[in-house]
Write a structure and sequence with these properties.
The complex is a heterodimer of chains A (214) and B (216). Chain A is built from nine helices and no strands. In chain A, helix 3 crosses helix 5. In chain B, helix 1 crosses helix 8. Chain B is elongated, with a radius of gyration of 21 Å. The chains are: A mainly alpha (214), B mainly alpha (216). Chains A and B meet through helix 2, helix 3, helix 4, helix 7 and helix 8 of A and helix 3, helix 6, helix 7 and helix 8 of B. Chain A: InterPro entries: AA_ABC_transptr_permease_3TM (IPR010065), ArtM/GltK/GlnP/TcyL/YhdX-like (IPR043429), Ectoine_EhuC (IPR014342), MetI-like (IPR000515), MetI-like_sf (IPR035906). Chain A: Keywords: Amino-acid transport, Cell membrane, Membrane, Transmembrane, Transmembrane helix, Transport. Chain A: This is Ectoine/hydroxyectoine ABC transporter permease subunit EhuC.
Chain lengths: 214, 216
């Protein structure tokens, strides 16, 4: 492989990493907002949040990406830059999976903790911030770590829309060299290394959060 | 937003073809992932690490890399090695292989959940190893894993649109073709989006009833 082609792969890596960071950020916001809404006191809020997770978990991420790229622009007059369209589709989809993790972890906190908060006169917001979340968040880290690897794998889907991510650069190199085994092996290895680093990072985060609780 | 019902009606014949391809890929992919997953799970229990380590590393690698790139790999590299398969076969093999690395964990958990007393009883009765597995351990383990396997079938359903990238005309491929021919994107994409939601909702309903029957 020539240095020009390597540069192409490097640029693809950079796009993949940026897309991963942006959609993970959006996904985290969605996951906490929807996950907390599912434990709300009023049923309409719970119902709407439940609808959101059912719809976005029910459909396929790739179909969602197509939808954001092709249906959103004529329907609402928005023309999103590919990076933001990809971020939106991935963040909303994987955020719905994350919402289930948040809901599960909040539900797993001992009910006595919540009752203690009520007895001490905490407002619902204070209970959430001071009592429930500090205990629930460390429990969310291992499933979030798995979801992050799933999201990394999901970022490859934007290459179908012609976005120049790592998988797309692999296709370009294949076309340039008329040879596929080598480049696809490299691309798979790069994804594997990123996934490995992500799991390490999350494990470190888990240790720190759990140490903070004690 | 302009919605055209005639476009929906025109799309229906192609939608049905796509749906059949999707369901066929799903059925075959599930079959492969169930068999290979069990094979990996059993290999991970062999006493020698010369089997366990390679299997562990390979399955970890397959699990942590994108299915889409694996599809490209199989679709473009296998012909270079002199093995030419149809796009559909390649896709089914790739999906089955990818998900077998998930189902193996399900099987492992199911086998681990069989009480130790069952193993001891098999030893006490002097059952040979093969018979212990076939007659004692697996029947109990498989019962427990059905719900978890079903969840992966639903996940697999949502990954079948990727086959479009290697020219298989499943639901999304049909929708894209229709959009390009008629220059209408909204209707076909929305139809298949709703179809995915409906199918996965029905599947999880079915799964919940199955779960109540099996796990008592």
């Amino acid at each position: 492989m020539t240095s020009g082609l390597w540069e192409l792969v490097l640029r693809g890596m950079w796009t993949t990493v940026r897309l991963l960071v942006f959609s993970a950020a959006l996904g985290a916001v969605v996951a906490f907002a929807v996950g907390i809404a599912r434990t709300h006191r009023r049923w309409p809020v719970r119902f709407l949040a439940g609808c959101y997770t059912e719809v976005f978990r029910g459909t396929s991420a790739l179909v969602m990406i197509f939808w954001v790229f092709f249906v959103l622009p004529p329907a609402f007059g928005w023309q999103l830059v590919p990076m933001w369209a990809g971020t939106l589709a991935l963040g909303l989809t994987y955020g719905a999976y994350g919402a289930e993790i948040v809901r599960g972890a909040l539900g797993a906190v001992d009910p006595a903790q919540k009752e203690g908060g009520i007895a001490l006169g905490f407002t619902p917001g204070q209970r959430l911030r001071r009592i429930l979340l500090p205990q629930a968040v460390p429990e969310m880290i291992p499933p979030f770590s798995n979801l992050l690897v799933e999201l990394l794998k999901g970022t490859a889907l934007v290459s179908v829309m012609g976005m120049g991510d790592l998988a797309f650069s692999g296709n370009l190199v294949r076309l340039a060299l008329q040879e596929s085994a080598e480049i696809y092996t490299y691309v798979l290895l790069v994804y594997f290394v990123i996934a490995f680093l992500l799991t390490r990072l999350m494990r470190g985060l888990e240790h720190r959060l759990k140490a903070g609780l004690r | 937003m302009n919605w055209d019902w005639t476009a929906v009606r025109d799309f229906m014949p192609q939608f049905r073809d796509g749906l059949l391809v999707t369901l066929r890929a799903l059925a075959l992919g599930s079959l492969i992932s169930f068999t290979l997953g069990l094979l990996w799970a059993l290999l991970m229990r062999t006493p020698t690490r010369w089997v366990r380590w390679p299997v562990g590393i390979v399955t970890e690698f397959v699990r942590d890399t994108p299915l889409l790139v694996q599809l490209f790999f199989l679709f473009y590299v296998l012909p270079e090695w002199g093995l030419t398969l149809s796009a559909m076969t390649t896709g089914v093999v790739a999906i089955g292989l990818h998900y077998s690395t998930y189902t193996m964990q399900v099987y492992r958990a199911g086998i681990d959940a069989v009480p130790a007393g069952q193993w001891e009883a098999a030893t006490a009765l002097n059952l040979p190893r093969g018979r212990t597995w076939r007659a004692v351990i697996l029947p109990q383990a498989l019962r427990r894993v059905v719900p978890a396997l079903g969840n992966y079938v639903i996940a697999m359903l949502k990954d079948t649109p990727m086959l479009m990238a290697i020219t298989v005309l499943e639901m999304l491929g049909r929708a894209r073709l229709f959009s390009q021919q008629h220059f209408r994107f909204t209707e076909p994409l929305t139809v298949i989006g709703v179809a995915f939601i409906v199918i996965s909702a029905l599947a999880s309903l079915l799964l919940r009833t199955l779960e109540r029957r099996l796990v008592r």
